[in-house]
Amino acid sequence: MTVTDKCPYCGEDFTYEPGAELTVDCQSCNKEIYLGPIRKNRTIGDYTILRTIGVGGMGEVFVARQNSMEREVGLKILRADLIDDQEYLDRFFQEVRSLAQVEHPNVVQAYETGTEGDVCYFSMEFVPGKDLEYYLDGGKIFREVRGLQIVRDVADALRYAWKKHRLIHRDIKPSNIMLTPDAEVKLLDLGISKSLSEDNNITVNGVMVGSPNYISPEQAKSESSIDFRADMYSLGATYYNMLTGKTPFSGENAIEVLSHQLSSPIPDPRDINPNVSELSTRLIRKMMAKDKNDRFKSWEEALESIDGIIEHLSDSPAPVKTKSQPVKEGDGLLSSLKNRPKLTTGIICGAICLAALIGIIGKSMSGNLSTELSKKYSEAIRFAEKCSPGQRQEAMRKLQTVITSGNREFAPQAEEMLEKLRRQIIEEKSLAEEKKVRKAIKYLKMKSYALEKEKRFSQAMEIWQRYAKEGEMRDNPLLKKAIKSNLEYLKTRSKEKSYGYD
What we know:
It is built from 14 helices and 13 strands. The protein is an alpha+beta fold. A six-stranded antiparallel beta sheet has the order 5-6-7-8-10-9, with helices on one face. A three-stranded antiparallel beta sheet has the order 11-12-13. A hairpin with a 2-residue loop joins strand 6 and strand 7. Helix 10 (342-386) runs antiparallel to helix 11 (392-405). Mean pLDDT is 77; it is low at 195-208 and 316-343.
């Protein structure tokens, strides 16, 4: 059966076979059209979908226009299978209403929630930017003070939510911490994780909640009486990741990682990044103590410790000049000069002059060295700006040298340029992977369709099933969806054949 629909981009009609594909290309504008239930320009309640920005365990996230307020918002559409349970929905709505009361500069504010037909949604403040996971996936290692500043902002948001509303997040991780273009920190999904239900992120009593790489031991054991200290553990694990580029524990599967969270000692971040200070190492160990009673007793206590480390690690202010005090007779060098014979005094004066001359020469040499380094740093940045794809790794090494130097003039430029190169690498990898995935889907469809025409539906299904187990791109979400939809389509066709409808 062929279905005709209107393209959300150009408005012209396009046709497709239901269940056969997840996406099609418009015959008029050649834009790719997603065939899921939510598409661009669809109006849901007071909101008009503008574009997709992500897919999560609970559903899809869109940028939408709130028509009554004439503003852009973030709109989360829940998966259809999560709205069948009325008790679940009641709990979800109650928690979103609670979240809407949280007004903190480091929290993405929730606006409202509602349903329309079979669609359940909630809207929130739209914040442009990238989450920490984006930067970490690009290979970024955060400088210690910057990492602490981010941790501090998140900790303060969690302190407010716990103190004012007794809300806990239960899924603190890099993908839930956003950095805006203005370098502001925004915490996503505060409290929402308590309502999600996806694999190991189920939130009913007695069932584990959270992400294995960051989850606290008490969450891993599915304890029902958890408090703010569970978030503290996860935030400590996130800080470890920011300083090292790796999660504290890894394993072949989630069970192995959870086993480490329960019993393995916290690894020393300095084994990976020797530049991490002893103070930050102690902070991570305190926040990630296996026994929650060994962690900070309150968010206020944690914030006090974080502020102290930031102050200690930050550049010391220039010394304050004070009015010189008169030197009394008998004190220091003046006393020595007066009590020595003239010859000795002359020798000492000569030594002082020589030291002054050495100082002048040293200052000149230092100035020359500073000029040489500035030239080297400037050349590194220019090289990075003009480098070809094959020269990127060399450019990134040069930029990293400038950043670690701490030069106030060039280090910020180098960090910005390094981030730009990392984004380019990620984008190119993403495009290359997408191209590879679409090529694989096209090949699988061609093989499958050839068997389908001969009504060999079982063999056609084997094509998709085999790739799901052994294919190179089998873990890609788009390919997983293509496999699922095509298998469902082929099963339907096979049943039709067995019933004699074909």
